[in-house]
Structure formats: structure tokens, C-alpha cells
Amino acid sequence: MSIVQPGKQRVRSKLPQLDLFRAFALFGVISVHSSSTAAAISGLHSKYFPIFNMMNIFFKFGTPCFIFLSSFVLFYNYYDRPDTGSLIRKFYRKRLLYIIVPYVLISLIYFLFNHELNRTPWLGFGEEISKLLNKLATGSAHTHLYFVFVNAQFYLIFPLVLIILKQFKWLSAWAFPVGILMQWGYVLLNHQYHYQWMPKGSLSISYMSYYLLGASLAIYYERWHGWMSRGWTDRGIVDRSAVVGLVMSWIAVSGSHVAIWHALRIYHIYYNSLLYELLWNVQTLLSAFVLLLTAFQLHRLFEGKLLYRALAVIGQLSFAIYLVHPFVLAIYRKFDLGISTFVSEYVFWIWGGFAAALLVSMAAVHAIFRYVPKAWMLLGSEPVYVASAKTGRTSSQMQDPYRNRQAGV
What we know:
By secondary structure, this protein is mainly α. It has helices spanning 17-42, 49-57, 62-78, 85-117, 125-138, 146-167, 175-193, 208-219, 221-229, 237-267, 273-302, 306-316, 318-333, 344-371, 376-379, 384-391, 395-398.
């Protein structure tokens, strides 16, 4: 694919590699959630704590990578399309139907589910409605729904950001540095003056480096896609050094992030909160590159193979799995069987939670999409492979180069 200056009209091909990227990011999310209790509470005095801490901190790239991908998909699909009122209306209609409607319905279900799970006394109807509306307005009906809430904020400003980057094309090259400045400006303001009206992680500005990195890579996709997909033997010494440097930097920063959380949780050694923020930010930004590189390499080497197809299906179901997997984890944890945290069986119980959250959720959402009418109202837009099975058309025939996976997931 030839290099084309940003802003010129071009037809952009589908990127099946992104389904693999979604699967990797989902694994990160489920690893963090399945290990959260063991890493922060129950497993603190276990000799297996390093395993729990690794699962909980090393894999924190999940949600930031989904946020990065949300922006990448939007700019990849919309940057070279005409700016028309109908396009903007279509954009918001899709988000309303396939993001906001599922968000509201799944939030309501979690609100009811948590009431029963925690045996919380019911208040008056008006008070409960007020609580629900507050949770909807803050993305807090359950701990993971902040991600959808954060993306909804970015959707509100996306047309404006798109117009600015198209109008001032020189700014596209500076989008990522601008995102870092915006995010860290807010981080430092919050650190110095505790300036926030809701939890920092529930505001899209806290993830602006990921949004604008996604925008930058999408706009200049033709300039870097070859580097991502090139085989090792086709790379020169500089190219190979860049790949090795990227991976080694990612491992080093991720390891440092794991280490300071280990020191905090076990030895109560506290560092400045900005260090935790910095290591998390650098680790997850590097993760976006590493996971993209891995996805492109797997696509090059294993397209059509069983592992590749399995990852692609998980990726296509990732938004739906993301929404429902906490249900599975909550129920799974009710059957802990009193296993001591000091025995190896507890490690396998934690890994079992990961497997259950992934596989049971995957089976459930597949069945819902396959057999329940209007499943999109609860789980978002229908995956390509399900739609192709229903119509008898192949996945490649069903692929739309401008099909946006909801919320980047």
C-alpha cells in the first residue's frame, strides 16, 4: 500500500488484525478482574502472591488498549470521508443504538444484580431511581462500566476533533504529544490541587494520550503498517533493533510497574503517586504497539489456522464479553469452597475464574447473538461471523471497511 498524505481521499481496507488486538486486550481485562481480590486482599500473605500481583498489574493494558483502539477505529474509518451533516447524524445514531442503549440496559441489570448479590436493603422507589440515574451519569453501576462511560465522553467531542485534524493537517503529526500534554496537565492539576468532580479514571481526559495516539496512527496508517507486518528476515539491522528495543522496553517498564505494586502491597513501601501513574501510562502505551505488532505478525503467519480463527471470534465478541464477564466472576466466587490461599489449589482457582469469565461469557453471548432477537440492544452490534452464519454469506463478504466495532472493542 503506497504512502498517501493525510487528508487525500482513499478507500481503506478492512483490518482483520484488529480482532486479534481486541482479543489480547480482553485477556488483559479479564486477568486484572479475576485476580483483583487475590492481589489486593485475600492473597497478600500467600507465597503465591507474586503470581496474583503479576496477573493484576502486568495485564493492566486491557482497558487503555481498548480506549486506544476506539479512537483508531473511528479515525481510520472517518478521516477520509466527506464532512456532511448526514455522516455526523449517522455516527451519533450508531453510538446511540449500539453503545448507549446497551450501556443503559446492562447498567440496570447490574444495579439489580448487585442489590441482590450484596443483599442491600431496598429504599423507596424515588431514592432507588435517583441512585440508578447517578450511576448511569458516572459510569458506576459496576466497576468495569466506566470504560463505556469514558468512551461516550469522547464520542461527544469526536466530530470536533476530526474536523480540527482535517482542517489543520499539520496538527495530525502532533496529535499524540498534544494528547500527552492534555492528559498529564490534568494529572498534575489533580495531584497538586485534588481538582476533580468525579473519579479521575472516569474522565476521558485521563486517557487523552491513548485517544490521540489512536488518531495519529490511524491517520498515518500507510506509513507504519508495513513495519508492523514485515517478517523478521525482511528487516534490516535498524528495523530489528527497533523491534527488540520496543519489546525490551515494554518488559522493563511492565516489570517495574509490577515491582512497585509488590513493594506497596507486601512491604507498604509508598512512592509518589505520580510514579505509579507514569509507569502505568508508559507501560500501556508501549502495550498498544506491542499488541498491534503481535496481531499483525500472527495475521501474517497464521491467518486461517485454528488459533487465529479462535482469537478472531473472541475479538469480535469482545465488547459483549466485556459487558457480561463480571456476572460470571461474581457467581464463580460464590463457590470458593473455602480453599486456603496458601495452597496451590488456590492458584488454580484464580486461573479457573479467568477461564470461566472468558469461556462461559463467550458461550453465553454467542448463544444470545445467535438465537435472541434484537440482541444488539443488550450486547451491541452483531459480530460479523454471526451475521454471516445467519445469512449464509462468508465473513469476507460480510466485512464492511467502514464497520465500526462498538467502543473499539
